[in-house]
Amino acid sequence: MVGRLAVRKYFCCTPGYSAACIDPDTKCPNNAEVNIQAIAGPPPPPKKARGGELSHPRKYEKIKINQNPTVGQSDCYVSLFLPSASFETARTKNIKDCKDPVWNETFCYRIQNQVKNILELIVHDENHCLLDGHPFTVLFDIAKLQLGETICLTFPLDPKCLPKLIITMIFYFFHHGLNARQKELDVRLDYELCPDEKVFIQKRKKIVAAALKRVLCMDNDLQHHEVPVVAIMATGGGARAFTALHGHLLGLQKLNLLDCLTYISGSSGSTWTLSNLYEEPGWSQKDLLGLIAEAQKNMSKCKLDCFTLDQLKKYHDILKQREKDGYKTCITDLWGIFIDQALGNGRCSSTLSEQRHAVNYGQNPLPIYMILNTRDKYSLQEFKEWMEFTPFEVGLLKYGAYIRAEDYGSKFFMGRIMKKIPESHICFLKGMWSNVFSYNLLDAWHKIDSSEDSFWYSYTHDKTKQIEEKPPLPPVAEAVNTYLVKPTCNIMKTVRKVITERVSTSEVYNFLNGFQLNNGYLENKNFYIWKDTVLDTFPNQLMTSLEYLSLIDTAAYIDTSYAPLMKPERKVDVIIHLNYSSGSQTTPLEKASRYFAKQGIPFPKIDLSREKNLKECYVFEDATDSEAPIVVFFPLINDTFKKYKAPGMKRGPTEMKQGEVDVTSLCSPYEIKNFQYTKENFDKLIELTSYNIQNNKNLILQALQRAIERKKPRTKQTSSQI
Q: What percent of the chain has pLDDT over 70?
């Protein structure tokens, strides 16, 4: 069976829109050969558009498929999908029990030549004699086709039965006037920092410069370009993270180092602390003991009081109102209400954008909350995208796409708000940022075996193979390779559905919906550094066509909130890593180091495998790369605190019990499953974490001094650990 597909394409060589007309005269391929012929005629003379403006050229496509039989009767048809032009799938009609069916049909598309146009040619066989019931899909980048030449290409479909497909494409120029002016979008498309954050940095740098001069006893003021950007990176860890972060911040306050910080990023349990703190406009300027006393009260109270009949009715009413506002509700929302009731003020009324009052004058570090965007039927090793929340904006790092914090949750299309939804209360964000219901079986398996040739990966996902057209087309810089996709069998599809099913994800409207990726998106350096999913080279399957985002806790992948701090535009010089995760204290840092090395993001090399007994603090620096941040690492351990109640002050015999703080054993009162601490245990964890900061003052100051020195020209050195 031989098929021929003729495509006529009108090419737009200047910014604007273009059109494609596809006219298939299709015959189904059995042992088929598909040839692509591109025949381009000379462009017609330019025409004057209305208003005397020269109109923009366009391009059209015409597709024909013819069939010759080889074995048996088949009910084949071909469908065409070009999502950059239409959300609908076009298909030829199906002619029953015919060895040589012929279609005379026309398909028309309007396309934009500056976006990535991937044509999906899907060959179906309803009788299963050719394809065993599973369609073959050819993914072809239209950018590979050249004007002014005729070429015939062959796509191999299956080496067993050797079917192939023939396509003929004909190109012409077409001119059309464009007079519409682009309106300002509700989505900011830019990898640069937003104007509000830039203003914040200018204000904050003055405070940081003055604080560094005091703590480092400097004689001269720091110049604007000499002020290092210092950040805290807090991991998740449930109530342990919530409590311990208070203690670490208290220790920094006692050392007068809070004003040296520009950013604080958090994930999972540490976001509970941050969201509570930023309800206070000047929290870092106040004595933290007052806020810690409030946190102690919440941590020590009985959590059963959160589940009385009156409280459950209150939760029900809150969820009904959220649903009425236009949100999709799930168990994560109930989890967020519980967190707010158990550890917050219980009012469920504050919002993320209201936290601007705590940073408008640069009086506090800017909080950044971290989360992951996922896809159905994929593990986190296969697909995840870093997403950040600040009081100013919410955005996906990989795409450089951001919306205002108050617009998060609203319905978007092509960058504009279609339906404005009231801003989500932060209690629901707390539940989403710490979604303990987001794990699936494949994620758990990848923690045991992360290789791509594992059984669950190899046999449950569609087979994707790069194929070559014959003869090869001339190389085009921005064109992606041609792929053949063959779905796995129905049994394996069912297995994958089961092992990738998540109990609950937070689904909100996707603000990328309706956008199209630029033709050269893979060459964009900002996209490239966050390019780490199996779908990145398949633009039709990325986020621009989905109505909802599916958001989960970062702890399911790597329990850190490093990603937004590693954004090149933030230029972070020092990161204080505060670790609260369960299990190995070094694993999150080591995983982050390997991840950034793979992505080509400057970061110190970390290897603590030889450390049998961890120290309270480590400082890592890559002296060969000034763009790599200095990392000050604080694992959650109890070392010298057992014998010292304060730096340099030994405990007396009656005080030794106060130094017994178990943060490592399975019987620890701070295990992640525990959501209620006694006042004594709460105070012990606060004292331990505050002490660990104060006891390593010199290492922190050395890192700050080193960051200032690196702002000045210096000779290259080798990697070192301070």
A: 78
Q: Please state the three-class secondary structure of 406-463 as a single string.
A: HHCCCEEECCEEEECCCCCEHHHHHHHHCCCCCCCHHHHHHHHCCCCCCHHHHHHCCE
* Average pLDDT rounded to a whole number, residues 136-149: 78
Catalytic residue among 333, 340, 553, 622: 553
Instruction: Count CA atoms within 13 Å of residue 15 on its CB side.
Output: 4
pLDDT of residue 504: 78
pLDDT grade for 101, boundaries at 50, 70 and 90? low
Check: CB of residue 623 under 8 Å from CB of residue 709.
no
Q: Where does CATH 2.60.40.150 sit in the chain?
A: 30-40+72-172
Are residues 154 and 469 in contact, defined by beta-carbon separation less than 8 angstroms?
yes
User: What number is the average pLDDT over the span 131-158?
Assistant: 72
Calculate the alpha carbon distances from 442 to 445, 486, 543, 584, 639 in Å: 5, 21, 21, 21, 37
Rounded to an integer, the average pLDDT of 412-418 is 95
Say if strands 3-10 and 164-172 run parallel, antiparallel, or are unpaired.
parallel
Of the candidates 268, 506, 550, 581, the residue annotated as catalytic is 268
553 is catalytic: yes
Average pLDDT of the residues in 372-389: 90
Max Cα–Cα distance, the chain, nearest Å: 97
- Cα separation, 539 vs 553, in Å, equals 25
Regarding predicted confidence, which is higher, 159 or 643? Answer: 643
Class of domain 30-40+72-172: mainly beta
At 20-76, the pLDDT tens digits run 222 223 333 333 233 333 333 333 343 333 333 222 333 333 333 334 334 445 677
**Architecture of domain 195-441+503-711 in this structure:** 3-Layer(aba) Sandwich (3.40)
Domain with CATH 3.40.1090.10 in the chain: 195-441+503-711
* 190 catalytic residue (yes or no): no
Residues 6+ apart with CB under 8 A from 245: 234, 266, 270, 273, 274, 578, 580, 689
Of 429 and 455, more confident: 429
pTM for this structure? 0.85
* pLDDT tens, position by position, 318-330: 999 999 999 999 9
- Work out whether strand 263-266 and strand 366-374 pair parallel, antiparallel, or are unpaired: parallel
